[in-house]
């Protein structure tokens, strides 16, 4: 009964309680209180700042009615544009702690948050915390706040999920906060301009999910032995997750990077990843073969590689195949090419014979899927090299359509590239085993 009732907004929850004595009993059992400024004040986001006083009055009135009760969830979503909110936010945080709240959300970002200076953010009241009052917190989302932990801060002992968004804090302070969240399982740090290294020294043995988006970092390093998923979006930087022996999936999206530098960095920082997705927006390809690099992805089985090829790099496409040398157990490989017309049938660059005999076979590769195949010599040599050295290959798909980065082609306007299709069929006919299921689109 409580599960059903807890999904209702506060007004409907109160109205439903008059139906029966049984329903009225649910009021005292861990209700979920969610206050959204737009819904409470019945206005749009842009005019919400004009109704701050009314929002404060409404929240205070409802919390007063729940005084002394256990509150499982408290959510407050209001634009932080008036300093009058500070005292009330402190009171609401104190209320949540006294009510043994498990899930706390403070979403305070204004409609036009890009124009707001960091000094306008709400300072989270660490001084209100004590071991007994915060021991019930299990999930917390903080948006548009400032984190300055006091010297008395000893951590959130039972916090399992933490989402920090547009938070103003030094990397050192965030590292200090995280180092004292020993039971943290899920962490997202979103658009927090730290401009420094984020190094968390304390072991986060329960952390299984980590996401970092657009945080202007120079380094990321966590000691998380049970981490299963890592997601990163931002500029190229060193990532240190070498202790994460159980890392199942990593999704890396970089603004820019030199291909072989990125690969070496990932080999050092994510050596145990099993499934890797790599996107590099402004990609630089150089004639670098990673010949003498002893580092390996010792557990990697699946790779998704998204490559936007600029005109100047067409002749270096084949160099990207050197990444496979570091993946001795690769089973599924997807390469999604995007770019402009410069690589359509481009007859430039090295041939696969230039590899010599240094490259081992890809004995475990079973599935190969290439999209955006436009018949450039580098693409064709890449394809033929892999096929010739993959004795266990079962399925091969070559798609002349650009499937990734479709924003460069209006919907339905990309032409079918008949020449590339014919080239693929002709080139593969003499080397591909009959046991391989071949699809050329």
Query: In which range does the helix fraction lie?
Result: 10-25%
Largest sheet: spatial strand order: 1-2-3-5-7-8-10-12-14-15-16-17-18-19-20
What is the arithmetic mean of pLDDT? 84
Largest sheet: 15 strands, parallel
Structural class: alpha/beta
Number of helical regions: 11
- Beta-strand percent range: 15-25%
Poorly predicted tracts of residues: 406-413
What radius of gyration results from the CA coordinates?
A: 27 Å
Note the gap between the termini: 54 Å
* Beta strand count: 20
Query: Could you say which overall geometry the principal axes of the C-alpha atoms support?
Result: elongated
Pfam family, one: LRR_At1g61320_AtMIF1
Protein name: At1g61320/AtMIF1 LRR domain-containing protein
Domain At1g61320/AtMIF1 LRR: 62-406
InterPro entries: At1g61320/At1g61330-like (IPR053772), LRR_At1g61320_AtMIF1 (IPR055357), LRR_dom_sf (IPR032675)
């Amino acid at each position: 009964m409580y599960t059903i009732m807890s999904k209702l907004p506060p007004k409907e929850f109160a109205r439903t309680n008059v139906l029966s004595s049984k329903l009225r009993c649910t009021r005292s059992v861990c209700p979920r209180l969610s206050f959204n400024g737009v819904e409470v004040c019945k206005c749009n986001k842009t005019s919400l700042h004009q109704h701050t006083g009314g929002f404060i009055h409404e929240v205070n009135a409802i919390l007063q009615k729940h005084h002394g009760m256990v509150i499982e969830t408290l959510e407050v979503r209001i634009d932080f544009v008036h300093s009058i909110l500070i005292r009330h936010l402190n009171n609401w945080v104190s209320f949540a702690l006294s009510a043994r709240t498990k899930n706390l959300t403070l979403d305070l970002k204004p409609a036009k948050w890009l124009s707001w200076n960091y000094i306008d953010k709400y300072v989270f009241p660490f001084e209100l915390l004590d071991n007994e009052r915060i021991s019930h917190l299990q999930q917390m989302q903080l948006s548009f706040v400032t984190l300055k932990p006091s010297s008395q801060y000893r951590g959130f002992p039972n916090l399992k999920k933490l989402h920090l968004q547009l938070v103003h804090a030094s990397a050192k302070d965030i590292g200090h906060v995280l180092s004292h969240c020993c039971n943290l399982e899920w962490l997202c740090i979103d658009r927090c301009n730290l401009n420094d290294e984020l190094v968390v020294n304390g072991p986060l043995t329960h952390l299984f999910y980590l996401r970092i988006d657009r945080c202007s970092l120079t380094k990321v390093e966590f000691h998380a032995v049970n981490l299963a998923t890592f997601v990163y979006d931002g500029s190229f930087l060193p990532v240190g997750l070498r202790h994460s022996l159980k890392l199942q999936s990593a999704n890396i999206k970089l603004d820019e990077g030199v291909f072989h530098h990125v690969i070496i960095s990932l080999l050092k920082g994510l050596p145990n990843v099993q499934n890797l997705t790599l996107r590099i927006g402004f990609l630089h390809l150089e004639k670098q073969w990673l010949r003498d690099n002893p580092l390996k992805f010792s557990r990697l089985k699946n790779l998704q590689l998204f490559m936007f090829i600029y005109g100047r790099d067409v002749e270096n496409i084949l160099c990207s195949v050197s990444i496979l040398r570091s993946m001795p157990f690769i089973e599924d490989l997807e390469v999604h090419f995007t770019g402009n017309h410069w690589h359509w049938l481009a007859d430039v660059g090295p041939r696969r014979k230039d590899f010599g005999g240094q490259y081992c076979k890809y004995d475990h590769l079973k599935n190969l899927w290439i999209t955006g195949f436009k018949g450039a010599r580098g693409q064709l040599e890449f394809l033929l090299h892999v096929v010739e050295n993959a004795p266990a290959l079962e399925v091969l798909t070559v798609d002349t359509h650009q499937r990734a980065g479709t924003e460069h082609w209006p919907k339905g306007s990309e032409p079918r590239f008949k020449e590339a299709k014919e080239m693929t069929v002709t080139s593969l006919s003499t080397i591909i085993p009959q046991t391989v299921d071949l699809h050329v689109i």
